[in-house]
Amino acid sequence: MLAELFINNFVIIKRDHIFFDKGFNVITGETGSGKSLILDAINIVLGKRANKDIIGKFDNKTIIEAVFLLDDRLINILEQMDVVFDDNKLIITRTISDKSSSIRINGRITNLNLVKDISKFLIDVYKQGDTNIFMYKNNYLDIIDSYKNDTESNSIRKKLESLYIEKNNFLKKYQEFDLSQEEISREKELISYQLDDIEQVDLKNINEEKLDQEYKRLNSVTEIIECIEKCEEHLSSYDYDSPSISSMLASLSSSLSSFSNIDDNIKEINSKVDELIDSVNEIYSELDFYKDSLDQNPERLYELEMINQKIFDLKRKYGNNIEEILTYKDKIKKRYDELDKIDNYKDKISNSIKNIDESLKSMAKNLSYIRKNKAKELEEKIIIEIKSLNIKNADFRIDFSKKLRIDPNGFDNIDFLIKTNKGEELKSLSKTASGGEISRIVLAFKKVFSTFDNIDTMIFDEIDQGISGRTAQIVGEKILDLSKERQILAISHLPQIASLSNNHILIEKHDEKSLTISSSTNLKGEERVNEIARLIGGVDITDKTKDSAKEMLDMAERLRKG
């Protein structure tokens, strides 16, 4: 349930901290006082897109924070969505400024998509005038299938979707084989050309790195020989004007030898110099041997150039690298084999499609049977609930018709039909009811489905529009009945509804210097009596309206306890 809502610098709300109770919470206030801002704040903290216009004039950023108290079932669900808990609280914090925006779950940065996914388990909102799930025909199949949390319907629909995708893949494959003999010959000719083109190089046994290294070496033989000869001059040269490494080391050894017999340290150093002389001579010999082995080999260089060019051309035509080219080669070889046996493949695909069609037909028939059984029960319950909401002449039917083709949802078309007055024909729900009737019909649906969904909190925004008197009392009692199973938040203008709540929140606005500020108060005792009296009588509150308010609150208390 929603336990707390903290709002800072949101439009005309400077700073507000609202506490909600279990059961029935009502929000009242004069028109324009900021009641709808509370709902807007809840929607924004639950992931609704928000622009910079919501930032108030009291600070440079807006902060909205909602605290939910969850049971173990919901905690387990959210933990599987990687939400981390320290206790049973879920705290969602949304911060919005001119420069940046952030959203946190239990103190950890997250993204709007995750919050939106989580919100589906937390709150169900009905706002007068919104396109509601029960008013939109495309939702009706989902509504029927979700009734009673029926796992069998969901299982069949998943299988239908999987088979439908499989059938479409087969149909695409069949279209690939739906060719004339001329088209087959032309495609086989193209594939043969491509295979010959690729097979000009033994790609499987080519190491591009070694090939490139060999090419660069052969292409640089002259420069390598020149480099070796230069190195040999530095190592050992008979030019006295340019002493070599060998001559310098020999001179160094000769100088040290004079003292080697009398100084062991000199002797050890001289030994190291002699080792250097041996190493230099060895390097010289290896360079000289390698120089003699070098062969410019223009024929091999030309061959490598041709191979490299061919690989480049193949990459340009068939793939970005050798692996992709070989994959493409396997693909077209398979296609060539298929074209060779095209009639057999077409027969196999046709048989597969036929088998899938039979399975789709059987599953769709089974699903339709389940839906029609559920529809009968649902019709009865919806009619009972609608009539209990003072639409005495209501009738409700779930109309089934058959689609021309089976899709992932089966072959059913469903429409919700209703009439609310005698002498009327049954018409589609979205086209027949008035605003006040729609509110009650939605309430009836939510009452029927409340047994099967697992959402802890329901919000009704001005569900009392278009109703009054006895009807308002009935609607209020229905909401009170719902609140025994879950938390209800309702924005209302009617005393019949407001008086039935166990937590009454008043939204007011006042001026502070040059700014208007909206704030909330949890009403108790005489404050609540005055607000119910205002809802009954308007601006002028008399002793009579206060007595009526007290009587209404006393009656509501008896209803809550009864």
Automatic annotation (TrEMBL):
Q: Give all residue intervals belonging to the Rad50/SbcC-type AAA domain.
A: 5-214
Q: Which domain of life is it from?
A: Bacteria
Xref: Pfam families: AAA_23
Q: Which InterPro entries match?
A: DNA_recomb/repair_RecN, P-loop_NTPase, Rad50/SbcC_AAA
As for family, the record states: Belongs to the RecN family.
| Function of the protein | May be involved in recombinational repair of damaged DNA.
Q: What is this protein called?
A: DNA repair protein RecN
Q: Which organism is it from?
A: Anaerococcus faecalis
